[in-house]
Design a protein that fits this description.
The chain is mainly beta and 181 residues long. It contains three helices and 14 strands.
């Protein structure tokens, strides 16, 4: 795997190193040693699969508070999506900054989202499917969300959302005193 750190510390784009022949190719999606060598938490406790049937579906912005904060690694297995990671670590020089990466079934890129960062994505094609694994179990009482179009974040989505859950529409704008406690 090829790990490329983004402008947000600990947020990596991970590309597969394919080894192929006339049959196709083989590539590792995860290696505990390689994750640890890059300072990433190699613990996996849950694997999730998400399908969004319509282009323009927006999911997020989601994260979990400590002690149930999650490291997550996402990969698109069908279709395409625009994935956004927001740094919510108050001590970070990139606090409230974000990075965006296009993940597609064809490019096979993954993005690693460390604890203290929030994540959201918008589908760019119908029937987009994403697979991701987490370092912590889902904990509803630690779950938090931020409104996807909070002006303080300045995220430029590729289009206006076509589908967004009522829950995600109702997330408030970011306020450290309420979102980080």
């Amino acid at each position: 795997m090829k790990f490329t750190e983004t402008t947000l510390k600990g947020v990596f784009v991970i590309e597969l190193e394919k080894r192929g022949d006339d049959r196709g190719f083989f590539a590792r999606l995860f290696c505990e040693r390689e994750f640890a060598q890059h300072g990433l938490n190699p613990r996996i406790v849950q694997m999730n699969n998400s399908l969004s049937s319509q282009r323009g579906t927006l999911r997020g912005i989601h994260y979990q508070l400590r002690p149930k904060g999650e490291d997550k690694t996402f990969r698109c297995v069908r279709g395409a999506l625009y994935d956004v990671v927001i740094d919510l670590r108050q001590e970070s020089p990139t606090f409230l900054k974000h990075v965006a990466v296009e993940l597609t079934a064809e490019n096979r890129k993954m993005i690693h989202v460390p604890q203290g960062c929030a994540n959201s994505f918008m589908t760019l094609e119908d029937n987009t499917e994403i697979f991701y694994f987490t370092s912590e179990f889902y904990s509803p009482e630690h779950e938090r969300g931020i409104r996807y179009n909070d002006p303080a974040l300045g995220i430029r989505w590729p289009m206006e959302p076509v589908v967004i859950s009522d829950k995600d529409k109702q997330h408030p704008d970011f306020k450290p005193e309420t979102h980080l406690k």
